[in-house]
Each structure stands twice: as structure tokens, then as C-alpha cells.
Amino acid sequence: MNHLSGAIPPSVGNFTNLKGLYLYSNSLSGSVPGEIGNLMQLTNLEIDNNQLFGQIPRSLRNLASLNRVHLEQNHLTGNISEVFGIYPNLTFLDISHNNFYGEIWSSWGKCQQLGTLNFSMNNITGSIPPEIGKLYQLHKLDFSLNQIVGEIPIELGNLKSLNYLVLNGNKLSGNLPRVLGSLSELEYLDLSTNKLSGSIPETLGNLLKVHYLNLSNNQFRKEFPVELEKLVQLSELDLSHNFLGGEIPPQICNLESLEKLNVSHNNLSGLIPSCFEGMHGLSCIDISYNELLGLIPNSTGFQYDPIQALRGNRGLCGDVEGFQSCKAFVSQKHVFENKWFLIIIPILGVFALLFFVIGIIFGRTKRTSKENKGSCENHRGLLSILTFEGKIVYEEIIRATKNFDAEQCIGIGGQASVYRGELPSGEVVAVKKFHSLLLSEISVQREFLNEIKALTEIRHRNIVKFYGFCSHPRHSFLVYECLERGSLAEILSNDGSIKEFSWIVRTNVIKSVANALSYMHHDCFPPIVHRDISSKNVLLSSEYEARVSDFGIAKFLKPGSSNWTEFAGTFGYVAPELAYTMKVTEKCDVYSFGVLALEVIKGKHPRDFISLLSSSSSNMNLSLNEILDPRLPLPSRNIQDKLISILEVALLCLEESPESRPTMQTVCQLLCK
Predict the structure, then answer these.
(1) Would you say 230 and 205 are in contact if contact means Cβ atoms under 8 Å apart?
(2) What residue ranges do the domains of the chain occupy?
(3) Could you give the angle at which helices 664-671 and 637-653 cross, rounded to 10 degrees?
(4) d(C-alpha 145, C-alpha 152), whole Å
(5) Sheet containing 149-150: which strands, arranged edge to edge?
(6) Active-site residue, selected from the candidate residues 94, 238, 532, 550
(7) Are 282 and 258 spatial neighbours (Cβ–Cβ below 8 Å)?
(8) What SS3 class is residue 644?
């Protein structure tokens, strides 16, 4: 794909009437020229996702007309209290993922129209000024991953429109202000990895719209806050790595939308609430490293890795591998009433430890051979194809990929690499191996399990076929069909073979992706949102048949649930509403599909075209020739009509308001006319 490179020329300052400068997601380098301060009419400055470095010019202070500023994902630096001015019309500012320093300027409170303020992942110091509490229009506030100290100012309780508050990864201290419980519109709250102390205020139970709450890695004490039972829309709760004591209150089972619960590494005692068994939506529980005892409930939340989720609690028992059986203790009530239980458990623990030591002594010689066997699972007949026992699958994959040799690697990502492997049957598969050094990270483990969950529940001709997975001490991987032509992104960037990717083929690819998404949204229960539809995640067979792939961050939409989650996706394809809310709906995929459809027609990412769309107050009157990939000859009249129809549908999908976008079912119907 074509990208701008080099530096931003100083001559850009000659365009004094310019209102929008859109240079994002290119390969620009060098510093931002001081002449940019001449653009006194500038309202939109978007130079994010480049390789720009150096000091931001102080002339930026002069641009009082600025409305939206995107500087994120560069290597820019400068003192934030000196390079920025007061912008009365500013609604959006994102300088995240840079090297800015200095303290947060109290005068930011004068930018009364701010809706989004993102300073995350910089080197900002000092404290949060109380004046931030004057930004009454603020929807998103993100100061995460800096060096900010001091207490959270109580003035933040004035931000009644706030949906998203993220202050994690700083050095904040003191008590958590009770006034945060008055933020009635708050949906996402992350204060993790700070030095906050005291008790968790019961006023947080008033955050009735919150979907994500993370207070982990602090110094909170006292008991588990029972008042959190009111948060009926809460889907993820993390209170791990604190000093919370007492029991896990059974009222937590009132959280019907809860999907993930982490209270590990605390001082919790007593029994695990038996009502966990009735929380069918609770897919992930981590209560490890507490002082819990009694019967382990039969909950789906422990199904993936019960040992990891329960370890560090010496008093637990149940029909779970790695834990002793409770035998006569049929119910938790019986366990609690039996006074001898508290005596038996330590004794059994001593015997277990004794047998463990004996096992180490006599089993030392078997250890190596045992570790070489993987715990592999089969799906859709992989084992029958190989005609081997399950334990041999791991070894066959190792052979097929030549022990994951670099020559077999066909793709590299941030968390995994993809290898080509030929099985003894002659079938060629793609093996997605997760980087071993990252396997213990929660985010990687989540992606690994999420992809398995998604692909074992869906069957469609336009979704990549899933053969199996393997979780092993040395390597963990997923096995798929191998699509010979690679990703759509690779096809579009290869000028040498682009003519084979004809207009007919392109229209079929667009329709195939639409069919896959329609199936996921309307024929699966619960519906599945992919969340990362992009050209790199659409694979093509030798016959240019399209398959949607990479379900690592897919989201299952639970009816009646909030479906709130962390930000994810590929920049340039993510729906605009995710800039200020993390609520996932099918319409997020619809927007990404619109971007993808335009990309297939244009032959490159349509970022400039989309920017023109968002800045245009009336319908654009562009000819088809201005949009078509110039590397192909002009299509026939019949094909032109089909491309125009696709273009019209894509524009509907790119509507800024999610409610105005069509469903994927409607998209398929429109494309088939």
C-alpha cells in the first residue's frame, strides 16, 4: 500500500486558509515544522500514527481555532504546559503514545468544549489539577501510564458527562474519593496499578452504568465492597493484588452481566459462594492466592484453567483436577457445619505434600519425557486426518513446521507468528504459534482462549476453517486451513499480481466478507462481533475465495448485557464512536466493513476519502473513476453498475451514527440486487 514518507515540508505554512490537515497513518518522519503556526484557520490537525519526532513547535499555541487534534502514536516530545495553548473550541485532544513531559496545566480547565482528553503513555509528572473538574463536556479522560502523583482530586466528581475514566499505571496515592460514585454516566473505570489505599467506597455502587471496573494492584484494605452488587451492567471486575479481607459476599451473584471476575492475591477467607454455579455468563474467575476453603463450585468460570484460577488457597477441595476430593462433604453447607473440616484439611495437606515429595524423587526420570507430550485438542477431524493418537499431534505439528523454522514462517504479529506446515496426509495447514515468552500474560491467554471459543462455535464457507489447538509447556498454537494467497492486504500491496485481482474477483470478495459477518451477527447465538475486520484479517484461497480470520478479540454479545469491553481493533478501521465509548455492537463491524469495501475498490486504504466524508457537510459528487484502483483497466458498464452499488452500500456503512448504519443482513440484501 502507498504511504507518504519523508518530512512535513515547511511550505505547509503557506496554506493560510487551510482548515484540515490530514496526514495520519503514513510513514512521515522528522519534526513538525514551526510554520504550522501560520495556519490560523486550522480546525483539524491529524498527524497521528507516523514516525514524527522532536519538539512540537510552540507556534501551536497560536492556533486558537483548533477543534480536533490527533498527535498520538509518534515520538514527539515537549513540555505540555508550554507547547499547548488555550483552545476555546477544542473538542478532542489525543497526544498518547509519545514522549511528552511536564505537568498537566491548570489552564486546560478553560477548554470548556473538550469531550476527549488523552495524555496516556507519556512521561507526564506532577499531580492532576483540580481545574480538570471544570471540563463539564468531558466524555473520556485518559491519563494512564505516566508518572502522575498525588491524590485524585474530588473535583473530578463534577464531570457528570464522563463515560470513560482511565488513570491506571501512575503513582496516585491516598483514598479513593467518594464523589466518584456520583459519575452517573460512567461506563469504564480503570484506576489499577497505583498506590491508592484505604477502603473501596460504597458509593461506587451508584455507578449503575459501569461495565468495566478495575481497581487492581493498589493497597485497598478492609472487606469486599458488598455495595458493588448494584452494578447490574458490570461485565468485568478486577480487584486483584490488594489487601481485601473477609468473605466473598454471595450478593456478587446479583451481577447477572458479569463475565470476568478477578479477586486473586488478596486476604479473602471463608467459602466460595455456591451461587457461582448459577452464573452461566461468568466465563472467567480468578480467586487464586487467598485464604479460601471448602467445596469448589461447579462453575463454568473455572473451566479453562482451574489450577491457575484456584491455586494458593490451601483449604479448597472438590472434583477438580489438582485438588483433593471433599468425599463426604457433599455441599458447602455440610462442609461449613462439620467442625472437623478445619482439622482434616491441614492433615490432608501434609499427606499431599509428602506424596508430592515422594513423587518428585521417584518420578524425576520420567519428567523430561512427560514434558515433551502436549495437551492437544481436536476439532473437525484433525486427529482422524493424522490417524494418530492425540498426544502425537503435537509432535506431528512440530515436524510439519520443522520445529517452527523461520523458513516456514508466513506471518508475524505482536503476540503470535503463523507457520506453514504439511501433514503426513499431504494436507497443508497454517499454525498460529503464540510467542512463548508472552504466554503467561493475561491478554495473550485471553486471545488464545477467545479464538478457540469463537471458531469452535461457527461454521461458514467464508470463515477460516479451524482444525484444532494445542496447549503445551513449550508451545501453544492453533491450527487452521492454509489459504495459499495470503491476506487481502498482501494482495492489494503487490503490484506484480494485482491484475489477477480483477473487478469480478473483488466484488465477490466484498460479498463473501459481508456474508460471513451477516452469519456471525444474525445466525449465531449469541451474536459474534469480530471487532477487527481489516484487509490483514481477510485471507484468500488459490481461487480468490475470501475467508475471515483472526478471532482473538471477537466479542460474544449477550442479550440484556452491556457488552462493554476494552478498546481493540486496527487503526483506520475502528468505528468512530469507540473514541468515546467502549460499548461493542454489531454496528462496529458494519463500519469496518465499509472501510474494507472501499479499500478493495480503491486498491488502498481509503483514509483520505473517509476524512473527506467526515468533513463534508453535503453529499460529495465524485465520479467512479476517482475512486477505482488505477492499476486495473476500467470495468465494463455492467461491472461499473455493481461497483457503484457497492460504493453506495459502503457509504451507508460509514455513517458516523451507529444507528444510521444498516445491519449486515441488509448489506447482503443490497449487494445481491
Answers:
(1) yes
(2) 372-481, 488-671
(3) 170
(4) 15
(5) 149-150, 171-175, 195-198, 219-220
(6) 532
(7) yes
(8) helix
Name residues whose C-beta falls within 8 Å of residue 222's C-beta, 6 or more positions apart in sequence. 198, 199, 200, 244, 245, 246
Q: Which pTM was predicted?
A: 0.55
CA distances from 24 to 73, 116, 119, 232 (A): 10, 18, 18, 39
Residue 618: the pLDDT is 40
**Beta strand 5-7 with 27-30: parallel, antiparallel or unpaired?**
parallel
Q: How would you class 112 by CB atoms within 10 Å of its CB: exposed for 0-12, middle for 13-18, buried for 19 or more?
A: middle
| pLDDT for the residue numbered 396 | 80
Neighbours of 530 (CB within 10 A): 27
Topology match between the domains 372-481 and 488-671: no
Q: How confident is the model at residue 408 (pLDDT cuts 50, 70, 90)?
A: confident
| HSE-CB for 589 with a 13 A CA cutoff | 29
Q: Do 311 and 285 contact (CB within 8 A), yes or no?
A: no
pLDDT tens, residue by residue, 203-224: 999 999 999 999 998 999 888 8
Of 176, 167, 116, 164, the residue nearest 145 (C-alpha)? 167
**In this structure, what C-alpha cell is assigned to residue 246?**
473477609
Pairing, β 75-79 against β 51-55: parallel
Give first-to-last CA distance, the chain, whole Å.
31
pLDDT digits (tens, 9 = 90+) for 268-307: 999 999 999 888 888 889 998 899 999 999 888 887 678 8
CA Rg, the chain, in Å? 27
Let me know if 532 is a catalytic residue.
yes
φ/ψ of residue 52, rounded to 5 = -70, 145
- Mean pLDDT in residue range 119-134: 94
Alpha carbon 502 to chain centroid, angstroms: 34
| Residue 393 pLDDT | 67
What grid cell was written down for 554?
471477537
Contacts 24+ apart (CB under 8 A), 304-309: 304/449, 309/284, 309/285
Comparing C-alpha atoms, which of 341, 376, 335, 538 is closest to residue 473? Answer: 376
Neighbours of 350 (CB within 10 A): 10
513: phi then psi, degrees, rounded to nearest 5: -65, -40
Q: Is 472 left (phi over 0), alpha (psi -120 to 50) or beta?
A: beta
Instruction: Locate 114 and state its grid cell.
Output: 473538550
Confidence band, pLDDT 50/70/90 cuts, at residue 449:
confident
If you classify domain 372-481 with CATH, what class do you get? Answer: alpha beta
Strand partners, 103: 125
Decide which of 614 and 189 is more confident: 189
CA distance 389 to 409: 26
- The fold adopted by the segment(s) 488-671 is Transferase(Phosphotransferase); domain 1 (1.10.510)
CA–CA–CA angle 255, 257, 263 (5° rounding): 60
